[in-house]
Amino acid sequence: MLQFETQLKKLKHDILVEIVKYARKDELTKENLDKIPDKVIHGKKATYRCCIYKEREIAFERARMAVDIDPNTEENRDVNIDDIKISEGDQIIYILEAACDSCPINDFMVTDLCRGCLAHRCKEACKFDAIYYINGRAYIDHDKCKSCGACKRACQYDAIAEIIRPCKSVCPTGALDIDQDTSKAKIHEEKCVNCGSCMSACPFGAISDRSLIAPVARMLEEGGKNIYAIVAPAITGQVPQIITYGQVKNAIKALGFKDMYEAACGADAVTVHEANEFAERMENGDTMMTNSCCPGFVSYVDIMYPELKDKVSGTVSPMIATARYIKNMDPEAVVVFIGPCTAKKKEAVRPDVAGAVDYVLTFEEIMAMFEGFGIEFAKCESEDVDDASIFGRGFGAAGGLTKAIENYVNDSEVNVEFKPVKISGGKEAKKVMTMAKVNRLGGNFIEGMMCEGGCINGAGKFMSMMKAKPSFDKKNAQSTMKTVLSNEILEEYKNINLERNL
Q1: Residues of 92-119 as b/e, b for ≥16 C-beta within 10 angstroms?
Q2: Residue 339: how many CA atoms within 13 Å on its side-chain side?
Q3: How many CB atoms lie within 10 A of CB 489?
Q4: Phi/psi zone of residue 316: left (φ > 0), alpha (ψ -120 to 50 degrees), beta?
Q5: Is 108-162 assigned to CATH 3.30.70.20?
Q6: Which sequence ranges form a coiled-coil region, renumbered to this chain (predicted)?
Q7: Are 195 and 459 in contact (CB under 8 A)?
Q8: Are the beta carbons of 52 and 45 closer than 8 angstroms?
Q9: CA distance 193 to 195
Q10: Which of 39, 66, 372, 472 is 20 to 30 Å apart from 177, CA to CA?
Q11: Residue 160 backbone phi and psi in degrees, to 5
């Protein structure tokens, strides 16, 4: 039985399960979408919101989002599963307006820790006369306040708090903004990298991602196609430690997939290709290069540091490498990538790699798929799954790519000085890329991961990184391939194009 860390996770899961069940029966009608809120929210008493009607309206928005109906602009309608797709230029992350709590947006606030002291250093520090007193206690006039923070720095009791909305504070590009008229969150799509950090951070679950779960569920139910699953290395952290990789593979095959491939195997191939590309660039006089496996990071560079776009590796990501390998083997293949990353949904349709991956599901979505199809890991047989090196599987955590390249450089004939600088999360990205922009990097290779901790902490994860990491480390260590070059499948990748079509 699945364990949920929060009620938000359970609610989203339950809605996705209902979508899967209706999709399997080809019954995603307007009338059935209307039924989903009553199926997932029981009783007549509200649990978290002001009333049961509000809770059901939010559930309804989630259901519509899951079948590609924009909950903020479109009327409810019947769903044509064939029309559910993501195209180039499409936004992945959306605000669910009914769910947004319009959190307070005053940047600074005097808390109850204010002692009503006589020094009044907060008032002396404020150059805008925004501090006033009632019965000796300090208050802030927000009409005058310029949010400079001088009062906070001056208070010896640390009684002035800086309040930033969780969604806004984690956005690496400033795409997440606040509507001044409604106080609700909004996204500037032209600045959004679709990393999903805001989705993970929002305590009200007011931000969600577009889903392709319905067409995938229907396709698996109908059969007749060669449907292959590629699983991200982070999958090993999303199931209990007692569940083997082989059981995960057979659970996926029980859904109707013809076979399952590890993206970690593609990661081994990417390591070799990217390391050789790096060496060539350094020989040609380049001063630095970045990775390209994190689509959120690639988009971040495009948007925030366009002058450094040419420093991004021309090598494809492990997802694309593995998909191209499968389609080279089976031209009729339909490829579904399963991972923790919402930005992968955008990467799959990016012009430089489009055509390799047909659908992308998150770990949240695949867990709903298992329940919707009535499949339990524990009841699936195990088998040996050993298609990737320990370093390829390590791509799922921050620093894993760097370790893989270091291993390859040490074991191969590549003669180059490798001085990596690692980025784990948006805050580090800004610091490191700013230093790179002014030629003060202190290294020659940047490993950029937009999610703090790496893919294992992606927005589409089912289990938190804290709970997933032990299982991830344990299962990855079971790989019998202890070096990148020990993976014999690398020979088969020599005929696969591993370059982005720039």
Answers
A1: bbbbbbbbbeebeeebbbbeeebeeeee
A2: 37
A3: 18
A4: beta
A5: yes
A6: none
A7: yes
A8: yes
A9: 5
A10: 66
A11: -110, 120
Q: Where are the domains of the chain?
A: 7-102+185-213, 108-162, 214-495
CA dihedral 37, 255, 233, 273 (to 10 degrees): -120
> Strands, E, within 136-242: which ranges?
137-140, 160-162, 176-178, 185-187, 207-209, 226-231
Bridge pairing between strands 259-262 and 131-134? unpaired
Structure tokens at 15: 């809605």
Record the tokens describing residue 260, joined without a space: 């399952």
Which among 258, 278, 257, 475 has a CA at the least distance from the CA of 385? 475
Assess if CATH 1.20.1640.10 describes domain 214-495: no
The first and second tokens of residue 297, run together, are: 């990071």
pTM of the model: 0.92
CA gap 41, 59 in Å, rounded: 8
pLDDT tens digits in sequence order for the chain, 502 residues long: 688 889 889 999 999 999 999 999 999 998 999 999 999 998 888 777 888 888 899 999 999 989 988 877 777 777 888 888 888 888 999 999 999 998 877 689 999 999 999 999 999 999 999 999 999 999 999 999 988 999 999 999 999 999 889 999 999 999 999 888 888 999 999 999 999 999 999 999 999 999 999 999 999 999 999 999 999 999 999 998 889 999 999 999 999 999 999 999 999 999 999 999 999 999 999 999 999 999 999 999 999 999 999 999 999 999 999 999 999 999 999 999 999 999 999 999 999 999 999 999 999 999 999 999 999 999 999 998 999 999 999 999 999 999 999 999 999 988 899 999 999 999 999 999 999 999 999 999 999 999 999 999 999 999 999 999 999 999 888 899 999 999 999 999 999 999 998 7
Distance CA(60)–CA(37), nearest Å, equals 6
The length of the chain is 502
Contact (Cβ atoms closer than 8 angstroms) between residue 310 and residue 269 = no
